[in-house]
From TrEMBL:
Residues 1-18 form the signal peptide. Keywords: Membrane, Signal, Transmembrane, Transmembrane helix, Transport. The chain crosses the membrane at residues 59-79, 128-151, 163-184, 191-212, 218-240, 252-273, 285-305. InterPro entries: MFS (IPR011701), MFS_trans_sf (IPR036259). The lineage of its organism: Eukaryota, Fungi, Dikarya, Ascomycota, Saccharomycotina. Pfam families: MFS_1. Its main location: membrane. Gene3D superfamilies: MFS general substrate transporter like domains. It comes from Wickerhamomyces ciferrii (strain ATCC 14091 / BCRC 22168 / CBS 111 / JCM 3599 / NBRC 0793 / NRRL Y-1031 F-60-10) (Yeast). It is a multi-pass membrane protein. This is Transporter SEO1.
């Protein structure tokens, strides 16, 4: 749940240039962590199953807990808050002055508590709800590919270790595609193009899973290839670009995106991915397909609504920057 807050930090410390790559450096680690989690689970089950009377799955929880403890302390020490109020001990006075100067140059203002008037203004802003819909539909649609291990288990031909390791191929695809999307979307600045490509990957994969009665290799392809549909790094880079000068809208958008995503994920998978239907979730795969389609539609609506404002603001920033340069000369 701290991911979106960390993304807020990134959007406050850096400008819009190269933002998707920066988002990838953070979010791409989730794919790597899932890969290593599979390897750790396989290793723990092999070496610790039955040790001291505990089954392998309990040892996995213990190991995960031990790993989380130092991460919490590292985060407390390393996260610098905002440029305007940072007290991070690892930042020098010169670093803080540089960060403040850059934040001022970029037009950054410190996020503050919202009053009722500001809350109302944010609530009626169409960009808020369009982005929330785009983000939530895209994230929830990815649930279809998280049941790969259940599919492998149902075949009865793979060991516990193999069931933990094989799905990491999907994580590898996710990592590579996230990097490609981030780099290319930063190069040409065309966020909507690459968000659309990622959504089409998800649509095609969910369509194959919905059909289900297809060759085994094609099902494997759908599960693995579908992992390349995650466009979160691009979406968050796009997010930072659109809300460049709107701190209140940016903060509320992050909060609502988080709330709605976790709210839907708390009950929706239980309704559409029922255990008795595993691994052929007739309803679940179709619902994920619809979510990808809706996410694609809302992405284009969001692009249409925000493009004029973004272009006008970027043009003004160029004029201001040129004016400052002329004054120095």
């Amino acid at each position: 749940m701290s991911l979106l807050l960390t993304l807020l930090y990134l959007s406050e410390w850096f400008g819009t240039e190269g933002m998707s790559k920066r988002m990838f450096m953070l979010d791409g680690t989730s794919a790597l962590s899932s890969m290593f989690a599979g390897y750790i689970q396989a290793g723990v089950y092999t070496t610790m199953n039955g040790r001291y009377g505990l089954p392998g799955w309990k040892w996995v929880f213990l190991v995960d807990g031990f790993i989380s403890i130092p991460v919490a302390f590292i985060g407390f020490y390393c996260l610098p808050d905002f440029p305007q109020n940072s007290r991070a001990p690892w930042l020098t006075k010169k670093d803080r002055q540089f960060a403040l100067a850059r934040a001022k140059k970029m037009g950054r203002v410190k996020p503050e508590a919202l009053n009722l008037k500001q809350i109302f203004e944010v609530a009626i802003n169409p960009k808020l709800w369009l982005f929330v819909a785009l983000y939530v539909f895209g994230v929830i649609g990815c649930n279809a590919f998280s049941y790969f291990s259940l599919f492998l288990k149902s075949l009865g031909t793979y060991s516990v270790q193999q069931i933990n390791i094989i799905p990491t191929a999907g994580n590898a695809v996710q990592f590579v595609t996230m990097f490609i999307y981030a780099v290319l979307s930063d190069i040409n600045g065309n966020r909507i193009l690459w968000v659309s490509i990622a959504a089409l990957v998800g649509i095609f994969s969910c369509l194959l899973l919905s059909i289900w009665d297809i060759p085994f290799k094609l099902l494997m392809f759908a599960f693995i290839f579908g992992s390349g549909s995650i466009s979160q790094t691009m979406v968050m880079g796009w997010f930072a670009e659109v809300y460049y000068d709107e701190p209140n809208l940016k903060t509320v958008n992050i909060a609502l995106g988080n709330v709605f995503t976790y709210t839907f994920n708390a009950f929706l998978p239980l309704a559409i991915y029922k255990t008795k239907d595993a691994p052929h979730f007739k309803i679940g795969y179709k619902v994920s397909l619809v979510f990808y389609i809706l996410g694609l539609i809302f992405a284009w609506i969001f692009w249409y609504v925000t493009r004029k404002h973004t272009a006008k603001r970027n043009k003004q920033l160029e004029i201001d920057s040129k004016s400052q340069l002329d004054q120095r000369v």
